[in-house]
Amino acid sequence: MTSIHIIKASADELQTIRDLGRQTFYETFAPHNTEEQIQQYLAESFAEDKLNRELSNPDSQFFIAWEEENPVGYLKVNTGKAQTELQDDTSLEIERIYVKSSYHGKKIGKLLYGKALETAAELKKEYLWLGVWEENHRAVSFYKKNGFEEFGKHIFRLGGQEQTDLMMKKILH
């Protein structure tokens, strides 16, 4: 495998983020949900106008993992009011880390997580937090192995279905 480069995304890469986001979300969650629920979520969450707003929000940052010219994963982090819940000025939310299934096991998620840690340090944040679906055992295990602890739960809506996310955080100092 060639080396992976993590590059901050600009508004010009909206289509790349959209395609990568749709593909990786589908690969991750389609086996566990109805096609109708998945398609509804993809249409809403990866709509061009919504992604445009997210990419232009100064409190959100996207990073794309590239293998040469091929985008293989991405990271979205939020601070301040862009955070989906806590909106604590001392924290950085990891809203999304997704990697194409064909690249699972190749440490790309770890590289993207490293970029989140680096971003939190640059912004002098005290802790990282995220929500992860309780049934996504691979992700839950990854975060626990990297020092995250559960501190609560919240409901995540996928189509008309309610699912439980574990709220996890990692103190940085």
Automatic annotation (TrEMBL):
GO terms for molecular function: acyltransferase activity, transferring groups other than amino-acyl groups. Residues 4-173 form the N-acetyltransferase domain. It comes from Chryseobacterium endophyticum. Keywords: Acyltransferase, Transferase. This is GNAT family N-acetyltransferase. Pfam families: Acetyltransf_1. The keyword Manganese does not apply. InterPro entries: Acyl_CoA_acyltransferase, Bact_Acetyltransf, GNAT_dom.
